[in-house]
Design a protein that fits this description.
Layout: H1 10-16, H2 33-46, E1 56-57, H3 61-65, H4 73-82, H5 87-97, H6 101-110, H7 120-124, H8 145-150, H9 165-183, H10 186-195, H11 197-207, H12 212-218, H13 223-240, E2 249-250, E3 257-267, H14 268-275, H15 279-285, E4 293-304, H16 308-322
Antiparallel strand pairs: 1-2, 3-4
Length: 329
């Protein structure tokens, strides 16, 4: 499979400089541009909360036992950094995860993948559906365009399914499953998710290494990737016992959203008007529709549960003669 590689997330980049430090506490690291990108995306995402989260729960033990947690100094360093300099950002990301983890866990279960992977977006995007890196990775799973297309996601001037939580999660799960089949080792598979499988294979061959941790110590892979894997495992450790590290974790819940199949071309403005739904809310729920238009073909759009019946009825009327013209597709 042709793979473009994914840009390292801001948190991994910030922690990479001291990924191998044995001390549990590390020096202050200057905030990289990628961290600023992540914080901006998180602020925008927090402004569009789908529903208030339920009360906190103590731990996600299932995620912790689904994948062995390496006892490596770099994981302890990442834990210390997350619990101090980036504590607020990590807590915001964990809080936002509640609205997405049920979806992610269902897809992971369907693919027989570890539940721990539900926390990978903590360091990828803070569960932002629209975050775009400077390298072009986009969405909650920060998927590059070529990889997205390899896994069946549509990307054109009308639609970018990397911004669709359901579609992008299924693509990311399939990709992670393929990487694990390739490497038979989760640290290596996760490193390949970040840097690309070809780069990890090349580093293993050149250094005669067999594990990610050997690649880390030999600095045979990019700094971003050396930080990426430990920060992922640090996130899983935190989720396994949030109070021990000064965090809280809310129970996962399904947002009050329904998915409805729509035959395009059709504008969200026309749907909102016909169904008496706020157009801005409809656009916010469907950021994958780049111009606010359902392109030609079938697309599942997200609508508030309370308005689902009205939307379905409005779509029925449109297909019976009240269809809005969109043109150009």
């Amino acid at each position: 499979m042709k793979h473009a590689g994914l840009w390292a997330p801001a948190l991994a980049f910030a922690a990479a400089a001291c990924a191998t430090a044995p001390a549990p506490r590390q020096a202050v690291v200057s905030i990289a541009p990628e961290v600023k990108e992540l914080r901006t995306a998180l602020g925008q995402a927090n402004a569009q909360e789908i529903a208030p989260p339920p009360p906190p729960t103590r731990a996600d033990v299932d995620a912790a036992v689904s994948m062995p947690i390496p006892q490596h100094p770099s994981v302890r360093s990442a834990l210390a950094y997350f619990s101090s300099d980036l504590k607020g950002d990590i807590q915001d990301s964990l809080t936002r995860s509640a609205a997405y983890r049920k979806l992610i866990e269902r897809v992971l279960d369907e693919n027989h993948l570890p539940k721990a992977l539900a926390y990978l977006p903590v360091i990828e995007s803070a569960y932002s559906e629209t975050m775009t890196s400077r390298a072009g990775a986009r969405g909650m799973w920060q998927i590059m365009p070529e990889t997205a297309r390899d896994y069946g996601l549509r990307i054109n001037k009308w639609i970018d399914e990397r911004c669709d939580p359901d579609a992008s999660t299924r693509a990311a799960a399939a990709y992670l499953k393929d990487l694990y089949r390739d490497f038979h080792d989760w640290p290596l598979a996760i490193a390949a998710y970040n840097a690309g499988a070809a780069r990890i294979h090349r580093a293993l061959d050149e250094t005669h290494s067999t594990t990610f941790w050997e690649l880390l110590e030999s600095e045979a892979i990019p700094k971003e990737t050396r930080g990426y894997v430990p920060t992922f495992f640090a996130t899983v450790v935190i989720a396994s016992d949030p109070p021990a590290y000064g965090f809280s974790l809310t129970d996962a819940f399904d947002p009050n959203i329904k998915r409805i199949e729509v035959e395009g071309p059709l504008s969200l403005r026309a749907i909102a008007k016909a169904a008496r739904v706020n157009e801005r809310s409809l656009r916010a729920l469907n950021p994958m529709l780049l111009k606010g238009v359902v392109p030609r073909g079938r697309v599942a759009i997200r609508v508030p549960t309370a308005a689902a019946e009205r939307v379905a009825q409005a779509l029925g009327r449109m297909h019976n003669g009240e269809r809005a013209l969109t043109g150009g597709m």
